[in-house]
Amino acid sequence: PFENLSEDKTNAYFADGIQEEILTRLSRIGDLKVISRTSTLRFKNAPDNISEIAKQLGVANILEGSVQKAADQVRVSVQLIDAENDSHLWAERYDRKLTDIFAVESDIASNIAEALQAKLTGAERRAISSQPTTNTEAHQLYLRGRFCWNKWLAGASPAPEFDKSRQYYQLAIELDPNYALPYAGLADFYGFAFGFGFLPPEEKWAKAQEDNAKKALELDPTLGEAYNPLASDKLYVHRDWPGAERNFRRGLELSPNFAEMHAHYAFCLVLFGRNEEALAEMRRAVDLDPLSPRFGFSSARLFFFVRQYDAALDQCRKTLELDPGSGFAHELLGYAHEKKQMQKQAIAEWSKALHLSGAAEDASLLEGIYADSGFDAAVHALAQKQLERIKEKTARGEYVPAVEYVTAYMRLGDKEQAFAWLAKASEERNRLAFEIKANPIFDPLRGDSRFESLLQKVFAPR
Q1: In this structure, are residues 228 and 264 in contact, taking their beta carbons and an 8 Å threshold?
Q2: Is the dihedral of CA 117, 123, 126, 131 positive or negative?
Q3: Measured between alpha carbons, how far is 418 from 425 in angstroms, rounded to an integer?
Q4: Prediction pTM value
Q5: Are the C-beta atoms of 406 and 425 separated by less than 8 Å?
Q6: Which of 92, 208, 235, 307 has its CA 20 to 30 A from that of 436?
Q7: Closest by alpha carbon to 35, among 48, 24, 47?
Q8: CA dist 46 to 14, 157, 225, 304, Å?
Q9: What confidence tens digit (pLDDT) does each residue in 41-70 have?
Q10: Distance of CA 145 to the CA centre of its chain
Q11: How far is residue 346's CA from residue 313's CA, in Å, rounded to a whole number?
């Protein structure tokens, strides 16, 4: 990781951003395996044992660096180290103006590729030498947007930080309408918010995702990352799987080290019964970001979807070693234990998840009813509480994904209401509707002809 040596500590966004941009340039080189920033940031302020760090990351070489920014001047110091013998393969210090920062990033990437004897195609050379913008203020706004986005994804900041990323991307575009990366950032923002139900399934949000992804690629056709939201749009909005898969493949051809797209592609493959390919893609994502709790959890969830419950349990535990505060991992542990008929353990894990999400009252309810009346009664009581809560949200005019109603009514044993809401979920063009097909928690609804016919509706081309 790159250390922020600026006197102004609020420049942390800049040091993190420069590191991420150098990694992104290197990740375009198919001949190199480049570990994502999430895993490398775990070693911030602890760069002493290089060989141990390399072992944990599964790499042979480590790039260390520091960034110091003052007004329009920037100093970037880097050193490439052979982890096995702790020897320097290459080192350099750059004292430049902010306007030269992309040339510095490009020079670092080129020198690393040369030092590691990587073979570069013409397209890869062009990709690592690009200058995305000449507007330094737009660049810094984009880096601030990435900083907020990454903090939110890592669970280190509250929900408002998520929208801050959008605001910074928009400001960057206002300063430089020909800067591709902020458009890709906006496409990610809308794709994530729309796909996971943070925004209602309205045409305008789907269009914002598609338009921004297309604009990013119009400005920079080498931007593999922009194909990820484009694949989302093709599958979840237009229900065009062949088109989505073409986008995944093109994106990974341009950015072979992009862990996010490998993980996303994995979940899409499993929806179409291609389980072995899905598991291989997820292994690649985890290999590229081995210490990321998010990809650790994604891997556990994929194991759960393919009904490898022991593997799901094992991966959840590994994820909790990386992030003991992950309520999602505890919740998934609960579901996996339930599938293995380990009801006591399921209740314990769900209770931990509720405590971590601030719902201590619900946790007490679950534990108390389980002790007095057993598993089914406890699950029923919690579902009733959750149904009341989502009804209150709906009454306040807040959007609640239809899938949440399906889950609550299914847990209550009210199949008629569950299917009524499943029909609504099939109309919502987001990722949640698609995952019903593979997610084992919906097994109580399988076998009913209504379930199969509604699934066919979800997977029918638009």
Answers
A1: yes
A2: negative
A3: 10
A4: 0.91
A5: yes
A6: 208
A7: 24
A8: 20, 23, 30, 35
A9: 888 765 568 888 899 999 999 998 899 998
A10: 16
A11: 11
- Which two structure tokens, joined as six digits, stand for 370? 């389980």
141 within 8 A of 42, measured Cβ to Cβ: no
Tokens for 152? 């939110």
Which amino acid makes up residue 414? D
Distance CA 321, CA 293 (A): 9
CATH number of 1-131: 3.40.50.10610
Strand partners, 92: 78
Q: Tokens 């914002």 sit at which residue? A: 208
Beta strands in 152-263 (DSSP E): none
**What gap in Å lies between CA 205 and CA 208, rounded to an integer?**
5
C-alpha torsion 61→156→322→407, nearest 10: -130
Burial pattern 32-61, b for ≥16 Cβ within 10 A else e, equals: bbbbbbbbbbebeeeeeebeebbeebebeb
Q: What is the spatial distance between Cα 31 and Cα 120, in angstroms, rounded to a whole number?
A: 7
Spatial CA neighbour of 294 closest among 37, 32, 14: 37
- The CATH 3.40.50.10610 portion of the chain extends over 1-131
Residue with tokens 């960034």: 67
